[in-house]
C-alpha cells in the first residue's frame, strides 16, 4: 500500500520573486526588457511569480507535465483571473526601436 501511495505523491515547488526587483538590476548593459526562466532547465512541477516590467501585474512561470499543463490551461477559474499578452511581439518591437534610435 505504501508503494502505491508514493506513486501518487507529487512535489510542487512554488517560489515568489515579487519583491526581488529583477527589472531594476543592471549588469552594465542596461536594465532587462524581460526576465524569464531558463527554457532549457529540467524543472518540473514548478511555479515562479515575478512582477511585470511595469510593476502593474504578476507573471506566473508555470512548468508542468504536458498532461497537467493541458488541464491547467483550460481551467475556467484560472482563466477568469489571467490575461494573456503578446509579450514576444512587443519585446521585439521595443528592441528594434532601441537599436534604430541608437543609429
UniProtKB/TrEMBL annotation:
One Pfam family in the UniProt entry: Transferase
Gene Ontology molecular functions: acyltransferase activity
Superkingdom per UniProt: Eukaryota
Annotated keywords: Acyltransferase, Transferase
Database matches in InterPro entries: CAT-like_dom_sf
Similarity section: Belongs to the plant acyltransferase family.
PANTHER family for the chain: F21J9.9, VINORINE SYNTHASE-LIKE
Protein name listed in UniProt: Uncharacterized protein
Organism of provenance: Rhamnella rubrinervis
Taxonomic classification: Eukaryota, Viridiplantae, Streptophyta, Embryophyta, Tracheophyta
